[in-house]
Amino acid sequence: RTIVGVGRPIVSTSIALAGGFMVLIFGSFSPNINFGIVSAAIVMLALSADLILLPALLLIIRPKLSQTVA
Question: pLDDT of 51-67, one tens digit each?
Fold first, then answer.
């Protein structure tokens, strides 16, 4: 349920942010170009972790948390 409700804003925000960093590629200063490439790659990696890794980890951790609280 959460991915359906929150997934679209997370994806659109991450794509916009990565696109903003990719603009740095068109510059002439090589440290800025490298920063743009690395930053955009990290944002996309974080997006994939948010959509794939986080739900899987929550499924593993959630039963342990509910046993501890009860």
Answer: 888 888 888 887 776 67
* Overall pTM > 0.70: yes
Comparing CA positions, the residue from 14, 40, 37, 13 lying closest to residue 25 is 37
Give the residues of the chain that fall short of pLDDT 50: none
CB 47 within 8 A of CB 19: no
- Close Cβ partners of 31 (under 8 Å, ≥ 6 residues apart): none
Let me know if 40 is exposed, middle or buried by CB neighbors in 10 A (0-12, 13-18, 19+). buried
Q: What does the angle CA 65 – CA 67 – CA 69 come to, to the nearest 5 degrees?
A: 70
Phi, psi angle pair for 20, to nearest 5°: -65, -40
